[in-house]
Amino acid sequence: MSVDIDPVLEDCRSSIDNIDAALVHLLAERFKITKRVGEHKAKVGFAPSDPDREAVQIARLRNLAAESGLDPVFSEKFLRFIVDEVIQHHKLA
Amino acid sequence: MSVDIDPVLEDCRSSIDNIDAALVHLLAERFKITKRVGEHKAKVGFAPSDPDREAVQIARLRNLAAESGLDPVFSEKFLRFIVDEVIQHHKLA
């Protein structure tokens, strides 16, 4: 059977596409909020990064990952990937 | 004012935390499905990766990103990050 007409694959791929659309929309919303955070911190005079806050976020995400069957190591890598992008945008802005 | 009691920051951080929890749960679900895809492909004899499908996914996500105000370049980086993790898990499995 061809990849294009395999019903199991087609069903899975349509779920993956739905999830990816949701992920993109959530990420768009997250970046809107971190942009606001960055502007507010600059205005008020807070440091751009906050290692204590990041440590709390990582611990929380690792727990949520474990509960939902996601690899906790990946959840931490994922948060770092997102935070790096936020920092990159601050530098470019 | 301290970072800990700034109401604007507190409000933004609580939204970021909600979004991150949603992201983790969606990613957990996505990996469940890609695991099923990997097992099915192995059983049926399809190649593990499908560059044509990936090209379609990237084009679609870039469009969704542009519509939702997310940097399309980031959406592509994001998909690559996720797909690399899927491939990594296949290798480890």
Instruction: Report the sheet with the most strands of chain A, covering strand number, pairing sense and barrel closure.
Output: none
Number of strands of chain A: 0
Mean pLDDT of chain A: 91
Number of helices of chain A: 3
State the distance separating the first and last CA atoms of chain A: 50 Å
What's the SSE pattern of chain A?
A: HHH
What's the structural domain tally of chain A? Answer: 2
Query: Any low-confidence stretches of chain A, pLDDT <50, length ≥5?
Result: none
Which chain pair shows the most residues in contact? A-B, 51 and 51 residues
Structural classification of chain A: mainly alpha
Q: How would you characterize this protein structure?
A:
The structure is a homodimer of 93-residue chains. Chain A is mostly helical. The first copy, chain A, has 2 domains: 46 residues; 45 residues, Chorismate Mutase Domain, subunit A. Chain A is 83% helix and 0% strand. Chain A has 3 helices and no strands. In chain A, helix 2 packs antiparallel against helix 3. The longest helix of chain A has 38 residues. At the A-B interface, helix 1, helix 2 and helix 3 of A face helix 1, helix 2 and helix 3 of B.
Keywords:
homodimer; 93 residues; mainly alpha; Chorismate Mutase Domain, subunit A; 2 domains; 3 helices; 83% helix; elongated
Outline the secondary-structure elements.
Two copies of one chain form a homodimer.
Chain A: H1 7-44, H2 51-68, H3 72-92
Short description:
By secondary structure, chain A is mainly alpha-helical. Chain A has helices at 7-44, 51-68, 72-92. The longest helix of chain A has 38 residues, at 7-44.
